[in-house]
Amino acid sequence: MFEATCSVLETIIKEGSTYSQRGDANAAYKMITSFQFIFILHLMKEIMGITNVLCQVLQQKSQDILNAMNMVSTTKGLIQKLRNEGWENLFENVVSFSKKFDIDIPELSSRYIQGRGRHQRDHITIEHHYHFEIFNAAIDFQIQELDNRFGEGTTKLLTLSSALDPKDGYKSFNIDDICCLAEEYYPLDFSENEKINLRFQLKHFEVDVLSNPKFQDLRSIADLCRRLVETEKSKIYYLIDRLIRLILTLPVSTATSERAFSAMKIVKTRFRNKIEDEFLANNLVVYIEREIAKNFDLDSILDDFVCLKERKLQF
Question: What is the pTM of this model?
Answer without folding.
Answer: 0.65
